[in-house]
Amino acid sequence: MPSMHERIQEDLKLKERQLWTALTSADPAHAVNKLCSPNANLIFPNKDIIALNPDQPEQNEKTLQEALAPPFHRFDDFSLMNVRPMVIDLMAGTITYRISAYRGKKEYNATGSTTWAQGSDGEWRIVAHQETLL
């Protein structure tokens, strides 16, 4: 039976793949919003910090719609490499990795880091996400 830390690490890997599946979809805002805590901060290359507001949850999806409007991160495929999940405690963890993605002949190479926290409902949600172009 895997240890608690091993299970958390696997959960973090699965959630990060869900995030990238959402980010690379044609219309990512709704799916990304569902993965975020109400006060998440997201940092993408060449964009201002996206700071969600817990006092205005209905505004958060609109904020994401504007920031993640197509063709934002619209890729045909992606792969995560050098994936390193780190358990902070039983309800928090950070995962770092390298991302490689493409659409046609356009390539995207970056490093990424996401901090996740588990809510009282048992769901892992993004607290902070950052990408740095290589």
TrEMBL record:
It comes from the Eukaryota. Pfam families: DUF4440. Residues 15-126 form the DUF4440 domain. This is DUF4440 domain-containing protein. It comes from Talaromyces stipitatus (strain ATCC 10500 / CBS 375.48 / QM 6759 / NRRL 1006).
